[in-house]
Input
Amino acid sequence: METRRSFLSRIAMWTSLAVSYGAAAAFTGRFLFPSKPTKRTRSIYVGRFSELKEGESKLVTDLRGVPVQVVRQGSALRALSTVCPHLGCRVRWEAEKQRFFCPCHNGVFNREGEVVSGPPPRGLDRYEVEVVAGNVYLRMPEPSAA
Ligand code: FES
Output
């Protein structure tokens, strides 16, 4: 017959084992699947949303000194790099044709920054844009975290 003392000893032992194995499993899981470091981002002020003209672009310099074109289309905003993904020339927004154009080798991108014609192998890099209380900001990873 089991005494109260032996019953409590057994409960204590099983509880200790469960806590030990649980802690070991948690440390093993953290070792095998470490959490990803969070990307640090910065906001760059573009201007007041109401001051951005429909269909036109505004140039803003990113954290590396590269101009970024912010284009307003109705209530939507797009921020695209001015660096052509072909050989790095600067593309420009042509409002009358609603396209981005690279003069180096006649690369053409639509207003979403996707390649329409020419040698560029991919579209223009996009930046995240946000509007906070009527102010427009570019959100981008810090250069060291990129
Ligand atoms: Fe832009 Fe070649 S560098 S098309």
The pocket of FE2/S2 (inorganic) cluster is lined by residues 84, 86-87, 89, 102, 104-105, 107, 118-120 (CB under 6 Å). The helical segments are 4-32.
